[in-house]
Amino acid sequence: MIYVVMAYLWASVLLYVLMGGADFGAGVLEFLSTSKSKDSTRKVMYRAIGPIWEANHMWLIIAIVILFVGFPVIYTTMSVYLHIPLTIMLLGIIARGTAFTFRNYDAVKDKMQVVYSKTFMYSSIITPLFLGIIAGSAVSGRIDPGAANFLDAYIFSWLAPFPVAVGIFTVTICGFLAAIFIIGETRSEEDTKRFVTKSKHMSIAALAAAALVFIAARVEDIPLEHWLFGNPVSIICVILAIISLVWMWASLFTRQTKLIRVIAGAQVSLLLVAITYEHYPVLVNLKNTEGLSLLAQQGAEKTIRALGIALLAGSVLILPSLFYLLYSFSNRAEE
């Protein structure tokens, strides 16, 4: 049953990156839009994400619950040593959701709309930035359980070149996913062209951010290259990701909207497999000591069994409703 729980954890993280990432990316794209096209961009994005934006956080909640219940040592370590970026990320989620709601549903349209829009855009950048910082910190080996002072324990565990570079890369990935997703939701040729252009720009930005991650890894002596090219599975995933990038660019020219969504999702999935396979099942690398493994730090057997059963039963009840929600609003958008 432990492998069922681990599979749900990995799938939850992936789905949050894909669906939540596209959600956050909407704010990133709005921030990067020119003042002339901001209103049009905002309307298209609202039509795309408005009906289901809150459902995306379900995947983050599932991942947190799995860690809390099934892997308490890992949950405690991350929540203690990374409590500052975690708090900023959660505040970003709250600020973004509040701003989105008031901006779109407030009965009074006044100067506060400017405040709501700025809050929405900035928190859409801050949230994935710190999500990436947390991920980069967890794998970089910067968390030091033996730290003797506040800065080493709670600041330098995440405030460093590699985690920040991973955070920037995460922001660009979110913008890329949003642009790809929204192409299929546009209703005018002008909007379609604009988001195709944004998709190309964000893919280039993601490649540049990826190069920054490699440079930061070299500076901090993090074996990123070994993780990506040290085993056949990761190598195959990287090669497929590169091939799919070329395929996606070709599909952008032919406007195959459904296909490019699948390709973009596959790219992110392949990258996640490539980066995590080498140090699996270690989830958190620690400084000067062994990392925290999902197998070694799992909870009691009865707890894992109950958690696995709950996840399987919940899937039967929740997933059909979620797919129906997505299907319903997809059809509504096409009308």
From TrEMBL:
The chain crosses the membrane at residues 6-32, 53-74, 80-99, 120-143, 155-182, 202-219, 231-252, 259-277, 304-327. It comes from the Bacteria. InterPro entries: Cyt-d_oxidase_su2. Keywords: Cell membrane, Membrane, Transmembrane, Transmembrane helix. It comes from Niabella yanshanensis. Belongs to the cytochrome ubiquinol oxidase subunit 2 family. This is Cytochrome d ubiquinol oxidase subunit II. Its main location: membrane. It holds the Pfam family Cyt_bd_oxida_II. It is a multi-pass membrane protein. It is found in: Cell membrane. PANTHER family: CYTOCHROME BD2 SUBUNIT II.
